[in-house]
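Priority: medium. Attachment 1 of 2:
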C-alpha cells in the first residue's frame, strides 16, 4: 500500500469536509453582523429575531468548523512531515499569525457576544460580534497566504535545499493571496445568501401550508398563530431574510466573477498546465471548451475530443483579448520536462518512487469538470434568486407560492454554492500536481517540491489507511450531528433562539431548567 495515495486521500477528504463549514461561517457571520447593527440602530423586533435565529445557526456551524479544523494541523506533522520540514520556515509564519492573533481575537470576541446579551451595552455588544467576524476573515486571510505561497512562492530563497523566508512583506502581499482571498470571501458570501434564501423560502411556504398566510386578489394577507410565535413579525423575519439572501447572493456572484477572472489570468501565467488541464486543451488555441469528451480516465490527447467550443473566450480569460493563443498540453509538457526533469530524483525522500517518470499533467477529468462545476453551480441559482425577489416584491403577491416543487428547489439550492466552492478547491489543489509546492515560473523556479517527496517516510500505507477510515467515520458522525441540529432549529424557527416568545409570564423557569436549551442562559 503506497502511503502517498492514502495520504492524499486523507488530507483531501478532511480538508474538503472542513471547508464545508468555513464559507458558511465567513459569509453568515457578515450577514448576522449586518442584522444586529440594523437592530441596534432601528430597535425593530424583526431584526432582533433575525439576529438571534441566524446567529444560532452561525454558532452551530462555527463550533463544528473549529472541531474539524484541528485535524489539519496534526496531519502536517504526522502524515506530511517532509512537506512540513520543507515549507516550515515560510509556512509557519502565517500559520502562527492565524493561530496566535486571528483565532484568539475571533474566539474572545465571539465569547463576549454569546455571553453579553443584556449584559453589555448594545453598541459594545455589536462591536464584539463585528470583531469576531473580522477575526474569522483575518484568520482566513492568513490561511490563504500560506496556501497561495504553495501556489506561487515569493519572499524566499533556497538555502541548503530548503526555502528560507527573506521578505515577510512579499509573503503577506503575495498578489495571488489577495485575489484568492477576495474570491473565497465573495464565494462565502454567496453561500450565506443561498442559505438564507433556501431556509426563508421554506419558512414562508410552511406558513402558507399551515394556513397562516393567504393570498387574496393578488395580495398577501398575513395571519397569526399561537403556535411557535408565528405572528406578523415572524412573517417579516422570513420575508426580509429571503430578500436579503437573494440580494447578497446576486451581488456576491458579481464579485466571484471579477475575482475569478483575475485569478484565472494569474494561473495561466504561473501554472499554465493547470489551465490547459481545465480546458482539456491539447493544442495551443483561443477557444473555450463548452464540452469535451474522452475515455474514462484518459490522460492522452489522442483519446480526448472537443465537441463544442466558443472561439476567443479562452484568450479573453487569459489576456483580455480574443486572439492571443494560450499554450496547450503538448506545448507545455516538453517545457516542464526541460525545466524540472523527466524522472523523480534518486533521493531517499522518494523511497520506492525514486526514478519514476513524472507526469506533469493533472487529472484531466477532475480539472475539466471541477472547473465547470465550480462555475456552473455558482451560477445555476441566480435565476432562482431573481425569481425570489420578483414574487416577494411589495406591489405583487409578497410571499412565496404554495408550490411544493419550488419549495424543494429552494431547499436543495442551498447545496449548490457549497458544492461549487468545494469543487473549486479540489480543482485548485489537484490541478497543482505533481507539485505540492508549485514553482514560481516568473520568479525563482528552484523553489518547488514534488508531492512524492512530501509524505512522512516513517508512516506506512496501512497506518494512514487506518487513520483515514477512523477520521472518515468520525466526520460522518459529526456531519449527521450538524445536519440534525440545523434541521431541528430551522423547523423550530425563531423560538429556538428566543424561547421567551412562547413562555407564559406565570411559568416558573427554575422548576424546568432541564428542558432549557444549553445556551439559552447566555444566548
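Attachment 2 of 2:
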Amino acid at each position: 500500500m503506497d502511503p502517498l495515495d492514502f495520504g492524499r486521500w486523507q488530507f483531501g477528504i478532511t480538508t474538503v469536509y472542513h471547508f464545508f463549514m468555513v464559507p458558511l461561517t465567513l459569509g453568515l457571520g457578515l450577514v448576522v453582523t449586518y442584522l444586529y447593527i440594523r437592530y441596534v440602530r432601528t430597535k425593530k423586533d424583526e431584526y432582533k429575531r433575525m439576529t438571534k435565529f441566524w446567529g444560532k445557526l452561525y454558532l452551530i456551524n462555527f463550533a463544528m468548523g473549529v472541531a474539524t479544523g484541528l485535524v489539519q494541523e496534526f496531519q502536517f506533522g504526522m502524515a506530511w512531515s517532509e512537506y512540513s520540514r520543507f515549507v516550515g520556515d515560510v509556512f509557519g509564519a502565517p500559520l502562527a499569525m492565524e493561530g496566535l492573533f486571528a483565532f484568539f481575537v475571533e474566539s474572545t470576541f465571539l465569547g463576549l457576544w454569546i455571553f453579553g446579551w443584556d449584559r453589555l451595552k448594545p453598541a459594545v455588544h455589536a462591536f464584539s460580534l463585528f470583531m469576531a467576524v473580522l477575526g474569522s476573515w483575518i484568520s482566513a486571510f492568513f490561511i490563504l497566504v500560506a496556501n497561495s505561497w504553495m501556489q506561487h512562492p515569493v519572499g524566499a530563497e533556497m538555502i541548503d535545499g530548503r526555502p528560507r523566508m527573506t521578505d515577510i512583506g512579499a509573503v503577506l502581499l503575495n498578489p495571488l493571496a489577495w485575489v484568492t482571498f477576495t474570491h473565497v470571501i465573495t464565494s462565502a458570501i454567496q453561500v450565506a445568501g443561498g442559505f438564507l434564501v433556501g431556509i426563508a423560502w421554506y419558512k414562508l411556504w410552511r406558513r402558507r401550508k399551515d394556513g397562516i398566510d393567504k393570498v387574496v386578489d393578488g395580495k398577501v394577507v398575513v395571519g397569526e398563530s399561537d403556535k411557535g410565535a408565528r405572528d406578523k413579525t415572524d412573517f417579516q423575519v422570513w420575508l426580509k431574510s429571503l430578500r436579503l439572501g437573494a440580494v447578497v447572493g446576486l451581488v456576491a456572484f458579481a464579485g466571484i466573477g471579477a475575482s475569478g477572472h483575475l485569478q484565472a489570468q494569474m494561473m495561466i501565467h504561473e501554472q499554465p498546465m493547470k489551465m490547459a488541464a481545465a480546458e482539456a486543451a491539447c493544442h495551443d488555441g483561443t477557444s473555450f471548451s463548452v464540452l469535451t469528451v474522452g475515455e474514462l480516465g484518459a490522460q492522452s490527447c489522442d483519446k480526448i475530443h472537443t465537441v463544442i467550443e466558443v472561439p476567443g473566450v479562452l484568450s479573453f480569460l487569459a489576456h483580455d483579448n480574443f486572439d492571443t493563443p494560450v499554450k496547450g498540453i503538448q506545448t507545455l509538457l516538453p517545457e516542464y520536462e526541460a525545466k524540472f526533469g523527466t524522472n523523480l530524483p534518486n533521493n531517499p525522500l522518494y523511497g520506492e518512487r525514486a526514478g519514476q517518470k513524472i507526469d506533469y499533467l493533472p487529472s484531466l477529468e477532475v480539472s475539466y469538470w471541477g472547473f465547470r462545476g465550480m462555475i456552473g453551480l455558482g451560477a445555476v441559482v441566480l435565476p432562482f434568486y431573481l425569481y425570489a425577489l420578483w414574487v416577494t416584491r411589495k406591489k405583487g403577491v409578497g410571499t412565496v407560492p404554495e408550490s411544493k416543487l419550488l419549495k424543494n428547489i429552494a431547499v436543495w439550492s442551498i447545496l449548490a454554492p457549497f458544492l461549487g466552492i468545494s469543487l473549486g478547491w479540489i480543482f485548485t489543489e489537484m490541478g497543482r500536481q505533481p507539485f505540492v509546492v508549485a514553482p514560481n515560473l516568473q520568479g525563482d523556479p528552484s523553489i518547488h517540491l514534488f508531492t512524492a517527496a512530501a509524505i512522512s517516510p516513517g508512516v506506512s500505507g496501512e497506518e494512514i489507511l487506518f487513520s483515514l477510515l477512523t477520521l472518515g467515520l468520525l466526520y460522518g458522525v459529526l456531519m449527521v450531528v450538524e445536519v440534525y441540529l440545523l434541521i431541528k432549529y430551522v423547523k423550530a424557527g425563531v423560538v429556538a433562539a428566543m424561547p421567551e416568545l412562547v413562555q407564559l409570564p406565570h411559568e416558573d423557569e427554575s422548576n424546568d431548567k432541564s428542558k432549557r436549551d444549553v445556551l439559552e442562559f447566555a444566548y
